[in-house]
Amino acid sequence: MIVRVLFFASAKDVAGTANMQIAMADDANLGQLKQTLVEQIPGLMNIMSHASCSVDQEYANDDRQLYHGAEVAVIPPVSGG
Amino acid sequence: MIEISPQPIDTQALLAAVQSPTCGAAVLFVGSTRQWTDGQQTESLYYECYEPMAVKELTALIAESKRKWNVESVAIAHRMGEVGVGQASIAVAVASPHRADAFAAAGWLMDEIKSRVPIWKREKGVDGQAVWVHPHPTP
Fold it and tell me: What is the ipTM of this complex?
């Protein structure tokens, strides 16, 4: 399956892109995707240890099952206001 | 009412949007770019957001504030892009029959916005250095 990954703020700077498509096994969960992201972009390691992730615009835990076409976002600690 | 826009925030329009004859109280909170933070001089802030999720989160927070307090109407505006010193980056307006609910809900909404809504600021100092502000882990 292919999932879409969005990067924001410092994660976008480190990834060098605002979004990418990534191929995963059909039964992959969010934790496995995070692992794959860090393998492909080692600079994300530090950010990923503090960041949250969302699936389809909702905060999600590592055990969240992914599916083809899912929209995942890497959300570094927020600072709105 | 939720507004996420690079345009300057019309705080009076936001306040007017929540006021009604049934509400004896309306609170308007305005957050703006502060000149000094921990001895560092700021020139401007730059905001970006994950807009569809930010709108979802703000919608859920407004609904929750109405469950927690006797609040009739809430309006939130957040500016995006460059926001200079002294300019408003966020405004929250809350109207309720009595003032205690509006004060409490407005304070709670600001705390929740700062801790979970996917919006980020990059701080640009007068020295030209620009850094993302990532204060504490998001839930």
Answer: 0.96
